[in-house]
Amino acid sequence: VPNDIVDNCIVMATRNGYRHIDTAFKYKNEVGVGKGIKDCGINREDLFIATKVSDKVKTYEGAKEAIEVSLQNLGLDYMDLCLIHAPRPYVEMINPTEKTYNEENLAVWKAMEEAYHEGKIRALGVSNFSKEDIANLLENATVKPTINQIKVHIGFTPVEIMDYCKENDILIEAFSPNATGKLFNYPEIMEMAKKYNVTVPQLCIRYDLQLGCVVLPKTTHEEYMIQNADVNFEISEEDMAILKAIKGDFVALD
User: Fold this and answer.
1) 119 partner at 20 to 30 Å CA-CA among 29, 79, 145, 155?
2) Nearest Cα to Cα of residue 196 among 147, 239, 248
3) Which residues make Cβ contacts (< 8 Å) with residue 74, sequence separation at least 6?
């Protein structure tokens, strides 16, 4: 969400019950998020604020600086969650090389662990991490990741990494649950939404919730914020199986 409107979006979201706000240095909206936190009127301790160390930051010193910059941008004394945005620079996520970035991620994690022990971060996590990337932290770090924020939506359900995280008590946060609107092009999904008398985004959010994910829907419209939170229905096991069987990767990294 652009920096110049994210303040108002947070005000709208919080007055409709939202308390978890996800941002990142890479999104270039931390300052606006910080303003929204102040303007929304919700007590700081009742909000859960997450941000991310950029995919381009892969050194200990760089990560220490990034954490301080994010805290300053947000106007906060602490963040509830800080993630490594990606295990390697995005250009190498899209066009993989043989480099693992294991040592670099441990250096970034060390800086995050120090901030955690100093009370500047309440929980540590990762984003877009594979099994191998997470194993590197589990085997070598002193504070384990609590969350892996990854792409999960109808048409793209990465069961292997989700199962691995579950086995290691790592929560999955699902971004782009609606595949940035591309799931509207699937008649099967649209018909399923009609069956439950819900919108396609509501069906998609409920799908991820029933997979055990924390879900991160994005919208700038209050009407959709209200709809996205109204998911008090249950998809049957039979229909979940149908939705899991749909294949198609529709959205880039986030």
Assistant:
1) 29
2) 239
3) 23, 30, 31, 33, 34, 37, 49, 51
pTM: 0.95
Asked if residues 77 and 71 have their Cβ atoms less than 8 Å apart, the reply is yes
Centre a 10 Å sphere on the Cβ of residue 194 and count the other Cβ atoms it contains.
Answer: 12
Catalytic residue annotation: 27
* pLDDT at residue number 184: 87
From residue 95, alpha-carbon distances to 54, 88, 103, 134 in Å are 18, 11, 20, 20
d(CA 193, CA 17): 24
Q: Can you tell me whether residue 47 is helix, strand or coil?
A: coil
pLDDT at 185: 81
Q: With contact defined as beta carbons under 8 Å apart, do 192 and 203 qualify? A: yes
What secondary structure letter does DSSP report for 122? S
Classify burial at 223, counting beta carbons within 10 Å of its beta carbon; exposed 0-12, middle 13-18, buried 19 or more. exposed
In whole angstroms, give the CA distance from residue 72 to residue 94: 31
CA 117 to chain centre: 23
Q: Model confidence over 134-170: pLDDT tens digits? A: 999 999 999 999 999 999 999 999 999 999 999 999 9
Residue 145 DSSP label:
-
Query: Phi-psi category of 88—alpha, beta or left, where left has phi over 0 and alpha has psi -120 to 50?
Result: beta
Residue 11 near residue 39 (C-beta atoms within 8 A): yes
**Phi, then psi, of 99 in degrees rounded to 5:** -70, 135
